[in-house]
Amino acid sequence: MVASLESQLLFFNPILTAKSSHSKTPLHVHSLIFKLPNFHTKNPALLFTPISSSSSSSTTTPRCVATPSPPPNSDKDSDPVAITNVAPDRTRDRRKIVRVAWEKLVRWSRSWRSKAKTDILERTKKVVVLGGGSFGTAMAAHVANKKNKLEVYMLVRDPLVCQSINETHCNRRYFPEHKLPDNVIATTDAKVALLGADYCLHAVPVQFSSSFLEGIADYVDPGLPFISLSKGLELNTLRMMSQIIPRALKNPRQPFIALSGPSFALELMNKLPTAMVVASKDKKLANAVQQLLASSHLRISTSSDVTGVEIAGALKNVLAIAAGIVDGMNLGNNSMAALVAQGCSEIRWLATKMGAKPTTITGLSGTGDIMLTCFVNLSRNRTVGVRLGSGEKLDDILSSMNQVAEGVSTAGAVIALAQKYNVKMPVLTAVARIIDNELTPKKAVFELMSLPQVEEV
Fold it and tell me: What is the pLDDT of residue 85?
């Protein structure tokens, strides 16, 4: 048997060479050197040593143990200290590479900050925020904190909210434990709020924006930049905010910027690190708004892809309802991941058909906002989904909420857009059907799992 083994091994000569302790008796092969050709390694040969489980030759069962063959003329290999020092040396080298990379990044960042312009904030005297909701309040406080002499007016509907902000510097409805800066002033008078404003932050829910803007159009300066904080689609017209604002103000040239990204109002109020994106077709305007809003705890990126930023911000609310339904039905983490991945694909399919850039959908306003809205309990839309999945009725859910879940009204508009652009969106369509009370969450899951299993795109 051993002789047969040796003959088979020798068949591969010259790659395999046998060494025998007795040249005339191949049965006593004690080592085989297996050389690996054309591999650039420190140990180009392996030494195979047969080991017998018994001293008797009649019962010998050869077993091979492979050990690296030491390279010739190497003194270091015989020194165990040299071998042990290899790992620490490599660790030191790796740490040095990481340290140098980080230092370069910090130097670049400091250099960039030293050259950054601050003239926009210096020249800005007044900012108006339309709407007294949670996000409008958070952004008003954020801008006011950047400059003490800056006037920040909040145009609100409710006289009690207005009184609360002016007398106690607190929006008790949304942030009862947070004090607003002294330079935040509330009013119910549109003329007072808009007079002399340098920038306008629009924080009115999408479905009410057209009628609201038409009512204040006479006080809006034609050159006043509108920064839209609202995310969604107008139900009957399928319009985005970039279309709603100029139309309602009867000024197609009204400067427009979309602000979007993963951002909860509460965390902005607490000055936790946040990153968002401003999108405008006017690059100079986008850069100006970046200067106005960026701070030590709020990073602002710029984009020219207004459509991508807006459509991602609108559709992620619908997907968040779907994610909430999965959680409410206790379907587990596997199904949650599968659903959100499918939803991201559907958003990308529709957005790119509408002219958006794929990179926008994978950026802050797309994937970033989707992750936040789908996975975190602070999300209003996710909360609606959780309660739907738990068996509650939509009317009961909405009547118990003091904030608007844009995904509920956006769902129908999304499906109409999908039909317009001929895009299949099974997950988001299922959400719209559930909201219309034409499909139960349980039935929707069954139908989605029964869809044809096609190639991933």
Answer: 62
Name the phi and psi angles at 190, rounded to 5.
Answer: -65, -35
Residue 456 tokens read as: 């991933």
Residue 297 CB-density burial (10 A; 0-12 exposed, 13-18 middle, 19+ buried): middle
Q: Of 434, 442, 418, whose CA–CA distance to 346 is shortest?
A: 418
What backbone torsions phi and psi does residue 319 show, to the nearest 5 degrees?
-65, -35
Structure tokens at 48: 């195979």
At residue 314, the pLDDT reads 93
- What is the CA 155 to chain-centroid distance, rounded? 31
271-307: pLDDT as tens digits = 999 999 999 999 999 999 999 999 999 999 999 999 9
| Structure-model confidence comparison of residues 309 and 119, the more confident one | 309
Spell out a b/e string for 134-162, using b for 16 or more CB atoms within 10 Å of the CB, else e: bbbbbbbbbbbbbbeebbbbbbbeeeebb
Residues forming beta bridges with residue 68, ordered by sequence position: 46
30: helix, strand or coil? strand
Taking a C-beta distance cutoff of 8 angstroms, is the pair 70, 44 a contact?
A: no
Nearest one of 328, 352, 326 to 341, comparing CA atoms: 326
* 83 has pLDDT over 80: no
Alpha-helical runs (H) found in 116-147: 119-123, 134-146
From 316, 420, 442, 443, active-site residue: 316
316 an active-site residue? Answer: yes
Cis peptide leading into residue 246 (ω within 30°): no
